Amino acid sequence: MRTALPSPAEPATARDPMRFAPHGAMRLDAAAAAGLSDIETAISPLSAYRPGLRLKGVAGLDRLLGPHGAIGSSVAPFAGEGARPVRAILFDKSPAANWSLAWHQDRTICVRERREAPGFGPWTVKAGLLHVAPPFDLLARMVTIRIHLDDVPADNAPLLIAPGSHHFGLVREDAIDAVVERCGVHACEARAGDIWVYATPILHASEAAAVPRRRRVLQIDYAAFDLPGGLLWSGI
Length: 236
Description:
There is one protein chain. The radius of gyration is 17 Å and the shape is globular. Strands 1-11-8-13-3-2 form a six-stranded antiparallel sheet. A four-stranded antiparallel sheet has the order 4-12-9-10, with helices on one face. Strands 5-7-6 form a three-stranded antiparallel sheet, with no helix packed on it. A hairpin with a 2-residue loop joins strand 6 (123-126) and strand 7 (129-132). The chain is built from six helices and 13 strands. It is of the alpha+beta class.
């Protein structure tokens, strides 16, 4: 018997914007505005204009992004009480670094050390940090936020998402285009200080900016649970 596919989420409108449960995405207007200067201070020593700089041990970030921080505490309604940051990546688009990214799901997590556990693999090392692909049900319990440090109008490469695609499970590479067509596409425009909250497995993509300029985004994965089999989150 063929399994029925999930129904696409109703499209968002100006009067009925993106909602987390059906769409897998929701914008929190100005939720990070008060902490932007602290974030900019924390990341200022880091190499800029990178497609994706994986962060670990950056002074000052944990205070803002942790479960009791001004920003981290806003994640609890989506990821659960005690949700903590388990990975952070800085994206810094500019006229000198204006890349695009095809449709995909985020399928790996960052851990402290390798331990064999059922359903975990393959293993990879990215920027010196150990990553592994976990079972999909673990990814489905995670939440990813994107903190916007710059305005992201339609011509400055807003993240593109397929609303509701997180309900389709692990999507095969050869089925991605069909799922995107079924779900439709939403451009996640933002102002500096806004936070977009996403279901971690949502299908997403990024185009090169039509009018290239600075577009910095701090992306953080959150989880409110421990890993099985003795595995430990790397954290930030």
